[in-house]
């Protein structure tokens, strides 16, 4: 429990204590760990870290895992711009494409895209099942 970059850890009452004490699920060990936490000057910061980090095990800030509230769910990032080529267009282009010719070449023959964008589109095509990996390259699937 003492590893990591958080500044509060240097002031923790558990510093130098065997970390196994804080991860032993036996009720006597949990009680002993909570006793160490009771006099800790950074108890609140420790508990806040455990909650924010989603620590699943151990006693942190005087709270056992089942006593800590669940971390707040992450907000979904705002959606980015629409893809430059739709899944339907990818599917239609690559379903009957030449399986012996690189998918990137065939995609770029059909539509100009920045290379990074084209690779992202091809990753979607892999999920669509119309492109497969062969070694390090991407090719239209063979039917």
UniProtKB/TrEMBL annotation:
Under which name does UniProt file this protein? Transcriptional regulator WhiB
Organism lineage = Bacteria, Bacillati, Actinomycetota, Acidimicrobiia, Acidimicrobiales
Instruction: Report the PTM annotation.
Output: Upon Fe-S cluster removal intramolecular disulfide bonds are formed.
Residues annotated as coiled-coil are none
Q: Which Pfam families match?
A: Whib
Q: Does the keyword Methyltransferase apply?
A: no
Can you say where in the cell this protein is located?
Answer: Cytoplasm
The text of the family note is: Belongs to the WhiB family.
Question: Entry cofactor note text?
Answer: Binds 1 [4Fe-4S] cluster per subunit. Following nitrosylation of the [4Fe-4S] cluster binds 1 [4Fe-8(NO)] cluster per subunit.
Locate the 4Fe-4S Wbl-type domain: which residues?
A: 13-70
Assigned GO CC terms: cytoplasm
For binding [4Fe-4S] cluster, which residues are annotated in this chain's numbering? 14, 37, 40, 46
Which species expresses this protein natively? Actinomarinicola tropica
Q: Name one GO biological process term.
A: negative regulation of DNA-templated transcription
What does the record give as the function of this protein? Acts as a transcriptional regulator. Probably redox-responsive. The apo- but not holo-form probably binds DNA.
First-listed, main subcellular location of the protein, grouped into a coarse class: cytoplasm
Keywords for this protein: 4Fe-4S, Cytoplasm, Disulfide bond, DNA-binding, Iron, Iron-sulfur, Metal-binding, Transcription, Transcription regulation
Cofactor(s) the record lists: [4Fe-4S] cluster
């Amino acid at each position: 429990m003492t590893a990591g970059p958080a500044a509060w850890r240097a002031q923790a009452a558990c510093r130098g204590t065997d970390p196994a004490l804080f991860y032993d699920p036996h009720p006597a060990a949990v009680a002993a760990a909570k006793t160490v936490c009771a006099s800790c000057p950074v108890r609140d910061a420790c508990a806040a870290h455990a909650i924010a980090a989603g620590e699943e095990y151990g006693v942190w800030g005087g709270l056992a895992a089942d006593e800590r509230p669940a971390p707040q769910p992450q907000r979904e990032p705002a959606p980015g711009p629409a893809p430059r080529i739709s899944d339907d267009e990818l599917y239609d282009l690559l379903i009957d494409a030449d399986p012996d010719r690189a998918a990137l070449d065939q995609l770029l023959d059909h539509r100009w895209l920045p290379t990074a964008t084209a690779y992202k589109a091809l990753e979607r095509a892999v999920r669509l099942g119309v492109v497969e990996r062969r070694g390090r390259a991407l090719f239209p699937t063979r039917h």
